Structures are given as C-alpha cells and as structure tokens.
Design the sequence.
C-alpha cells in the first residue's frame, strides 16, 4: 500500500508594501505571507488597496542571524510547553510558532514539523527528521511524553533542561572568554610595539657608539625578526590553528586528548569540572524523571557531559549498573565524582527519589559554576592590567636601559 507523502511546509516571506486605505490615506508597512497575491487579498479584506509590493531581501547580517541556534530550540520548547498546558492542540501550537517567529529558518523548521504531525506522524518521529536541531535525547524525551500521555509535562521538563543547559554553556563560554582576551590583547600590544615602536628606538641607539645592554639587544633582535619574517610568524600561527581545528574535527583521539588537557588548565579547570558535573546531573534527572530506564538515561548523560573524561566515567558506571552494582558504588570506583555527589546519589537511591536528588545536585553545581565565573571575572580584570603592564613595561625598560647608561658612554 502506498504511503501518503507528507506535504511540504509552505514558505513564508516578508514583503514591503504601500497602498491606500478606505479614507484615501497612503499607508505602508511590512508583512509576512506565502505570496504577494495572498498578501494583497488579505490587505483588501482589511480595506487597503496595495499599489506597490516587493519581497524584502535579506542583508548579509540578516542571513548570519537567520540560523536556528540551541537557544532558539529552548525558546520553542518553552512555547510548546506553555501552549499545551493552556489546552492548545499540538498541531495548532506548532503552526502558531511557525507563523509567528521572526526567523525564516525557524518558520521553515517548525512548519515542516507541523505538516508532518498534521498527516498523523508522531511528533517524536517528525523531530527525528531534523537531527541537526533535535538530538536523540530530545526526541527520546518527547517519545516518552507521547507514550505516557503527558506531553505537556514532558515539554515543561525539556524546556527547563534546555534553558538550564544553555545558561550553563553561556557561563562556561564567559569563563573561557576572559583568559583568551588576556592572551589576545597581550599578543596584539606586543606585536604593535615590536613592529612599529622599537624600530624607532633602534635608529636612535645606532648613534650611541656603545654596546647596548643584553636585554635591549634581545628585544631588538626579536623586533628585527618580526619585521623580516612577520608573514612567516603569522602564517605559521594561523596554519597551526587551522591544522588543530581540522584534526579536532576529524580525529576522536585528538578530541579526547584535548578534553583531558583542558581539565588540567589552572583556574578554568574547576569551572569545567563543575560544569560537567551539572550537565551529568541535570540530564540524568530529566531523562530518569521522564520514565526512561536508568541504563538508557546514563547513556544520554554520558553524551551530554561534554568531556571525554566524564563521558568515559559515566559509561563505566553504566556498565557496572548493568552488571547489578548500585549507581553510587559504581560512581565511587571511577574516582571522578566528589564524595558529596556520591553521598547524595546514595540517599536518592535508598529513598526512591533519585531524580529529585539529581536535580538538587545539578542546582548546586550550576550555582557553583555561576559563582566561579563571577570570581574569575573579578580576578582577571586586574590580571589583564598586570599582564599588559609586564609586557609593555618590559619592552619600555628594554628601550630605556641604554639611555640610563648614556652618561658613561658620553664620559
């Protein structure tokens, strides 16, 4: 028997229009519609005779912003949860989101999902056709909601999970941004001084007729090297970044070793450890509470941990749980999880409230990440000044050392 082909979602465009209303007054504006003819018909019903209409073209900035981001999925999840709780039917909820969103990419995505569901396809199956935006964990949670008949409750859990996950990701990015900025500013300032400032001093020193201090000679030597081979230096730098990014994308071993390395970097390693712990607890709590078996929930938590060290540890826990070991005992054997976490998990297992205890663990570590990021920000503000002071001050001292010895040269 032939399977009915799902109708494709209609494309929604933005049109600029101008016309005359019933009072003869000129009016204009922008409106979204599937076609110019449909827009004209709609405006005619409102008493406006359109005299000029044109499809709005996207600028390069519009195109860059017209992509579906993880935070967009979190917002969509919250909108679906709210509408389902209010009693709005699923298909109508999806269609409303598709028509009202400002981003064309989201309108197309949700329009396609709505069309699939309208033909009788389960929502989880419709979402699986868009793995770039809805991962396996998301689809499994939706499927659990469909099977339990509590889709609105599950979407509320999904919305909370996505909102917390994106907030945590934003905090960790903020923590990593400051050290990167310190290094970048130091490199830029040093490069400017070496290429443009120090050569001016070198011309002055050439007339001294005396041997320059070793530190000054060293700095001038670096300056000459930069002036002669700056294209090689920068070329090698950007080539190294390109090769690393390529290796990181194509090699699992490189990604795993990078994950191990970043957890050893002072200052930020604490934030990364706490962030991985929060992701583990939040994912496991959400999936387990949704009725997904613990074995499958651990598999999802491993994928969401975001780091090879924790992913391996969680998969080891999963294997031990399959063999019949209690989860808190298996967690102790990994040597990755703090005693406080294993103790709380033990209490959760014994009381039968594992998902509730995991939620508390996630809340604790999310707060600790927030506090650690604020502390890092406060600490790095003076650190930036110190680093720049040492770099710039060192170069200035190197240039003024010959002037300090000028008296002996003249004498």
Sequence:
């Amino acid at each position: 028997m032939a399977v009915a082909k799902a109708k494709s979602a209609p494309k929604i465009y933005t049109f600029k229009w101008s016309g005359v209303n019933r009072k003869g007054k000129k009016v204009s504006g922008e409106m979204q519609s599937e076609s110019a003819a449909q827009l004209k018909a709609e405006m005619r019903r409102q008493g406006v005779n359109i005299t000029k209409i044109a499809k709005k073209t996207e600028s390069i900035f519009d195109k860059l912003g017209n992509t579906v981001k993880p935070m967009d999925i979190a917002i969509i999840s919250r909108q679906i949860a709210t509408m389902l709780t209010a009693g709005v039917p699923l298909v109508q909820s999806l269609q409303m989101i598709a028509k009202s969103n400002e981003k064309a990419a989201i309108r197309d995505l949700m329009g396609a999902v709505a069309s699939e569901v309208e033909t009788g396809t389960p929502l989880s199956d419709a979402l699986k056709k868009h793995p770039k935006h809805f991962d396996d964990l998301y689809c499994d949670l939706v499927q659990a909601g469909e099977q339990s008949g509590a889709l609105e409750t599950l979407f509320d859990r999904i919305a909370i999970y996505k909102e917390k996950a994106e907030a945590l990701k934003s905090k960790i990015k903020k923590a990593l941004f400051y050290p990167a900025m310190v290094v970048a500013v130091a490199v830029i300032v040093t490069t400017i001084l070496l290429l443009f400032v120090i050569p001016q001093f070198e011309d002055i020193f050439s007339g001294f007729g005396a041997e320059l201090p070793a530190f000054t000679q060293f700095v001038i030597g670096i300056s000459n090297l930069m002036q002669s081979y700056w294209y090689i230096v920068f070329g090698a730098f950007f080539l190294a970044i390109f090769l690393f990014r390529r290796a990181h994308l194509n090699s699992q071993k490189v990604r795993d070793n990078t994950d191990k390395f970043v957890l050893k970097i002072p200052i930020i390693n604490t934030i990364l450890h706490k962030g991985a712990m929060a992701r583990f607890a939040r994912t496991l709590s959400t999936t387990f509470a949704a009725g997904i078996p613990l074995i499958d929930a651990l598999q999802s938590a491993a994928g969401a941990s975001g780091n090879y060290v924790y992913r391996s540890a969680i998969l080891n826990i999963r294997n031990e749980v399959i063999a019949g070991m209690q989860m808190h005992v298996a967690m102790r054997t990994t040597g990755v999880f703090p005693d406080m976490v294993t103790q709380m998990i033990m209490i959760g297992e014994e009381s039968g409230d594992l998902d509730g205890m995991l939620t508390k663990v996630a809340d604790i570590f999310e707060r600790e990440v927030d506090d650690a990021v604020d502390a890092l920000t406060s600490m790095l503000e003076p650190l930036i000044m110190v680093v720049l002071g040492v770099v710039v001050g060192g170069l200035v001292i190197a240039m003024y050392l010959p002037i300090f010895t000028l008296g002996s040269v003249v004498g």
Q: What stands out?
A: The CA atoms of residues 202 and 220 lie 7 Å apart.
